[in-house]
Amino acid sequence: KGQEYYNDSIADKTISCADEIINVAKKDKNKQSDEVSAIVLSLICKLLYEKWSDDIAYSIDKAQYKEVIYDYYLKTMEEIGINDDARFNVEEALVSDTRTKHRIPVSDRRLRRINFDSFKDKLKDEHIIKIDTIGNTEYVEFIHDRLVEAIYDKHKEEAEKREYDKKIEELKKKRKRNMFFITLSLVILVIVSALFINAKKNEKNFLITQAKFITAEAEKLAENGDVYDAVRLLRYVIKNNKEAKNIAEMERVVSLLYN
């Protein structure tokens, strides 16, 4: 009996506040229209029922209608199978900067690029949008200003987050490009250094071979008694070949000439 009495109290409360509830659920947020969305009205009544079940004195003014309406909207979009990117683009097209509905042709390029035609009928059946034909053109808009109000703040937050994520991604790509060029520069530096070292090594080997050859010729001259020419040849190689003094053959020929 207590539960029945409690429900009766909620029913009486709902009846006594009917005009106030309907005003909240009116289609036009400026209350210039008497049109009421059944979906929005049912969501508001459901919320108030839950609040009044806990506190019969709960004020209608305190109710967070936007959260309830937005949760219903988001759940409906997910059930239809509309992904977050498509949902975000629908909101971009149909919500104005003044928190009001924005009516646009169904053929608008912003809707075409997300293949809006593939799910517009489902959105209409679920009372998320309305479509009117004017002349030969179909126009679409969200069905209720209250729905738009609920979407606006969430959409703005999401837009700011997407912009932030976009900038972070750009920074990551820029850093990745910079790392690539740094790595490439290091690779080029290593290759050039290796080529230089190899060139220096080849030059040294060439000079040593040259010095050994000339020294051997000087040794042959000395052994044949042509000391003067042998000395001239050694002086030439020592003067023009920086590796000549470092070979063992040079020491041996010099000892042969001066002993």
Summarize the structure.
The chain has helices at 2-16, 18-25, 38-54, 65-80, 84-94, 109-112, 120-125, 145-223, 227-240, 248-258, and strands spanning 104-105, 129-134, 137-142.
Give a topology summary.
Layout: H1 2-16, H2 18-25, H3 38-54, H4 65-80, H5 84-94, E1 104-105, H6 109-112, H7 120-125, E2 129-134, E3 137-142, H8 145-223, H9 227-240, H10 248-258
Antiparallel strand pairs: 1-3, 2-3
Helix pairs in contact: 1-3, 2-3, 3-4, 4-8, 8-9, 8-10
Explained architecture:
- With 259 residues, the chain is mainly alpha-helical.
- It is 70% helix and 5% strand.
- It is built from 10 helices and 3 strands.
- It has helices spanning 2-16, 18-25, 38-54, 65-80, 84-94, 109-112, 120-125, 145-223, 227-240, 248-258; strands spanning 104-105, 129-134, 137-142.
- Strands 1-3-2 form a 3-stranded antiparallel β-sheet.
- A hairpin with a 2-residue loop joins strand 2 and strand 3.
- Helix 8 runs antiparallel to helix 9 (227-240).
- The longest helix has 79 residues, at 145-223.
- The protein is rod-shaped and about 140 Å long.
- The model is unreliable at 1-6 (pLDDT under 50).
